[in-house]
Design a protein that fits this description.
By secondary structure, the chain is mainly alpha-helical. 49% of the residues lie in helices and 4% in strands. A two-stranded antiparallel ribbon has the order 1-2.
């Protein structure tokens, strides 16, 4: 499946199945916290914010190879340190969070397709171009959708 099909069709369809009381299969986040986390992550991916690299530079090639592979993030993978306290804490209800996330995802999609100089810096993967950031977004959303049973764990 292409990133475009996933962002445009699958994400909105799967979000219709998510309720505020949907139980997680692992981790500590509630469904509302997860949506807030995905929204915050999408804003971070577009922020051009530089953060400290958390992996040795000599391992970046291996980490990026994992990112670009079809392998899932591990269950209960910890948030990178710079992002541990970065959530919007909007207090919005689930439907508003879903709508805000879909709008942010649309903006992310347009930006990564139209800005030839797009970049994102991630503490585990270093500086990413648009294609790499779209893969990160794809994997990140899938990871959390699997966490809440919206997608099967492969």
């Amino acid at each position: 499946m292409s990133h475009q099909t996933f962002f445009d069709l699958e994400v909105p369809a799967l979000l219709k199945k998510l309720e505020a009381n949907t139980e997680n299969l692992w981790g500590e986040m509630s469904a509302t916290q997860m949506m807030d986390h995905l929204l915050a992550g999408t804003h971070l991916f577009m922020s051009k914010q530089l953060v400290d690299l958390e992996v040795p530079e000599e391992k970046l090639e291996r980490y990026k190879a994992f990112l670009m592979s079809d392998k899932n993030f591990m269950e209960s993978a910890p948030k990178p340190n710079p992002y541990k306290h970065y959530e919007l804490k909007s207090g919005e209800d689930m439907e508003k969070l879903k709508a805000s996330f879909l709008e942010a995802l649309r903006q992310f999609d347009v930006l990564t397709k139209t800005d030839p100089d797009f970049w994102c810096f991630h503490p585990s993967f270093g500086k990413l171009n648009a294609e790499e950031t779209r893969q990160l977004q794809f994997k990140h959303i899938r990871h959390h959708f699997q966490q809440f049973g919206l997608l099967p764990r492969e």
